[in-house]
Amino acid sequence: MKLILSLVRKKWVKWLLIVGLLVIGFFTVIYISVFLGAFGKLPTKQELSSIKQAEATQLLDTEGRLIGKYYIYDRQPLTFADFPKHLIDALVATEDVRFYEHDGVDNVSLLRVFVKSIILRDRSAGGGSTITLQLAKNLFGREDYPVFSMLINKFKEAIIAKRIEDIYSKNDILTMYFNTVPFPDNTYGIESASRKFFNKPAIDLSYSEAATLIGTLKATNYYNPRLHADRSITRRNVVFQQMQKYGYLSQDEVDSLRLQELLINYKSFNHDVGLAPYFREAVKKELVTILDTLKKSNGEAYDLYRDGLVVHTTLDSTMQAYAENAVKVHLTSLQKIHEKSFGKYAPWQSEKVVNAALKNLPVYKKYLKAGLTESQILDSLSVKRKSELFGWEGDSIQNISVIDSLKHYLKFLNTGMLSVEPQTGAIRAYVGGIDYRFFKYDHISQSERQVGSTFKPFVYTTAIEDGMKPCTYFSLSEVTYTDYDDWTPTNSVSKEEDPFLNYNLETALSQSVNTIAVKVLNKVGIEKVIRQVEKMGIDKELPLEPSLALGVAEINLKDLTGAYASYVNKSKPVKPYAITKIEDKHGHVIASFKPEIAEEVAYSDYTREVMLQIMQSTVNSGTAARLRSSYSLKNAIAGKTGTTQNNKDGWFVGITPKLVTVTWVGNDNHSIGFKSTSIGQGANSALPIFAKFYQKLNADREFNSITKSMFEKPSQEVLDDLDCEPEKRDGFFKRLFGGSNKKKKFNRK
C-alpha cells in the first residue's frame, strides 16, 4: 500500500493515471454516444428480430436448373441444414475459433490482439473480429464520419453484435452470416458463391472447395480463385491447417487435402455473360410488366431485384448450350468467308456506309445536340483510347477510336435462333445474337427482317386450302406484271430459265422457284394469303403486292416460329412463351402461365399433311438437301430455306415432330449484305446452325424423344394427290404458239 501511495505521489505516475482516465473517459463517452444514437440510430432488438435482406431472383430452366439471377447483390439464402459440417468447421476454425463461447464480442481475442499487435508489434496476431461482428458489418455496413470513424463503427458493430446474440441462436447467426457474407466477383452468400465458382449447391461442396471459399473471406479479390489460383491454393491450405490446429481435421487428412488440385467450374450469372443472356434479358423485361400487376399480401409491390423470387422457365439449359455452340462454330467459319469474299472493297470500309452509321450513333447525336460542328464531332470521335473488342478468335484490347471501333463492328454477321416445342410454344433454346456484351440488340424479341422464301409455304398453304391440288403444274417462264411497274420476278438456277418446263407444287416449293411462287400467289389472290397468314398467328400489316410471295414482308422471328409450329400441331399456331410460373421466396406460386395455342385450326388436316410432305422434300431433295448429304442427319425433318433480295438475310426453318427451329443470319446494318448468293443463301448461312445443333442433340440420348420422333402418316388421299411426275415440258404446239414471256395483271383478291 505504501508503495502504491509513493508511486501516486510521483508526478509522472499522476500524469499517466490522468491520461489513462481521460482515455477511458473518452472511450466511454464515445460508446455511450453511439449507444444513444448520436451517430445514427441503431437497430433495436425488435428490428433485428425481423431482418430483411435483399435476395436475388432466381431464373430456373425447365428442369429446375439455375440459369441466371436478377439482383443488386448476388445473394441466394439457405437454411442451416443446407450447410455441410466441414464448411462450418472451416469458417469457425479460420475466422472465429471461440465463436460458441463468446456473446458477440470476444474479449479474450481482443486482449490478445491488443497485447500482440500494439505492445509486442506482432503482425501475426490476427484480428479480434468475431463472426457476429462481421455479420453486423455485413448487415448494416459502415459510415464515414469526420473523426474517429473506425472507432465509432466498431462500437456500433459491437452493440449490434451483442443484440444479435441476445435474439438469435448460434446456428441462426451462422445461417445469416453465410447468406450475407461477400465473396469474390460481387457475390453475396455461400450458395451464390458455390454455384458461381464450382457450379454446384453449397451442400455439395467438397472439403477443398469449402476451404477455398472460406479462404477468400480474408481478401476477396486477392484470393479470388478465378484470378489468382496460386494465392487461393495457398490460402486454402492455411484454412486446412487451422482446421487441424483446432481439431476438425487430422494431420493425415490435411496432408492429403493439400495435394488436391483446385478445379474451378466457373459459371457467371452476370447479366452480360453466361448461358442464354438474351433470353434472360427478354424474360426480365417480361417480368417487370408482370410484377406491375401483382401485389404482396401487405399491398406492397414485388421487387425483382430484392424479393428472392423464383422464376420457372421453359428453357432447356443443355439444349441452349448446344444452340450457342452451333452458332459459335458456324459463324466463326462463315465470318472468315464473308470478310474474304469482299477483299479490299468491303462495304464496312466504305466512307458512305461508315458516315451513315456514324451519324446514327448516340454519341454523335449527343455532340450534335450540344452544338458541335461536324468537323469537331469527327475530331472527337477520332481520339484513340484503349477498348475491348469482340472477335471470334478471342477478345482483344486495342488502342482505337470510336470510328475505328464502328468499322470493326460493322463487319460482323449476327444471328437469331429460336427453338420451340410446337405443341405448346414452350421456348427450349433462344439465341438473340452473337455476344450480348457487345451486341445488345435481340434478333428474336426486337428485330423484324424480310423473311425471303420462308414466306412461300404460307402462299402454298393458302392455295391448297383454297382447293388447288399438289399436282397442279406451273411454268417456270418469267411473267411481267404490268400493274406493278412491269415487275418481272426471275429465278437464279440455270435450269429454271427453261420457259417450257413446268413444276408441280412439291417440286416448285422444294426447289424454291420464285416465278412459280408469284404465279401461285396470283392464282389464289394476295388478300386470301394475308388472311391465311393472320390465321397462322402473324398479325401485322403485310404489303399488298406480288413480291409478298418472295418474302419482302418484315416479320418477327418469334411470330414466324409460332406460325410454322402449326404444321406439327394439328394446324394450330402457338405463341412462343418463356415463363411457366413465378414463386415468392417462401415457395408460394404468385403467377402461373399456360401455353397460348390458337383455339381454331388455321387450315385443314389435308392441307397440313400435304405441306409437311412437300417441306420434307425440301430437305430430302430440295434446297435443304445438304442436311442429308453434308451433315448426315437422318431425323424426320421438314424445312424451308430463305434468302432475301441482294443477299441481305439468310433463313432456315427446321421442322421436326417435337421441335421447330428458326435460324436467321445477316448484318445488323441493312446496307451490308453477303457478297454472293452462294455465301448468303439460307442453305449456306443459316441452315448449318440448325444442322450442328441437331448433330449435338442426336449425340445426346437425353433428347431421343425429340430426335427419334416421326411425323404423322399422311392419309391415302394425300399420297395419291402427290403421286405425279415432279416436272413436265410443254407440248410442241404450246411451245410453238405459247410464247416465253407473258404480260399480265395481278390478282389481289
Shape: elongated
- Strand portion, in percent? 5-15%
What is the number of E strands? 24
Oligomer: single chain
Mean pLDDT: 87
Low-confidence stretches: 113-127
Report the span from N to C terminus: 120 Å
Short synopsis of the structure:
The chain has 749 residues and is α+β, with helices and mostly antiparallel strands. Helix content is 43%, strand content 13%.
Description:
The chain is of the alpha+beta class and 749 residues long. The strands form eight sheets. It has a five-stranded mixed beta sheet with strand order 2-1-6-17-18, covered by helices on one side. It has a five-stranded antiparallel beta sheet with strand order 10-9-22-21-20, sandwiched between helices. Strands 3-5-4 form a three-stranded mixed beta sheet, with helices on one face. Helix 6 packs across helix 7, helix 11 runs antiparallel to helix 12 and helix 14 runs antiparallel to helix 28. The chain is elongated and about 130 Å long. About 2% of the residues have low confidence.
Which terms summarize this structure?
five-stranded mixed β-sheet; 749 residues; 24 strands; elongated; 31 helices; 43% helix; alpha+beta
Secondary structure elements and pairings:
Layout: H1 2-9, H2 11-35, H3 45-48, E1 57-60, E2 66-70, E3 74-75, H4 85-95, H5 107-119, H6 131-140, H7 149-167, H8 170-180, E4 182-183, E5 187-188, H9 190-198, H10 207-215, H11 229-245, H12 251-258, H13 277-291, E6 310-313, H14 317-342, H15 351-358, H16 362-369, H17 374-381, E7 385-389, E8 396-400, H18 402-410, E9 413-420, E10 427-431, E11 448-450, H19 456-465, E12 473-475, E13 479-481, E14 501-504, H20 505-510, H21 514-524, H22 526-535, E15 554-556, H23 557-564, E16 574-575, E17 579-583, E18 589-592, E19 596-597, H24 605-620, H25 626-629, E20 638-643, E21 649-656, E22 659-667, H26 677-680, H27 682-685, H28 687-699, H29 704-707, H30 716-721, E23 727-729, H31 732-738, E24 742-744
Helix pairs in contact: 2-7, 4-10, 4-11, 6-7, 6-8, 10-11, 11-12, 14-28, 19-21, 19-22, 19-24
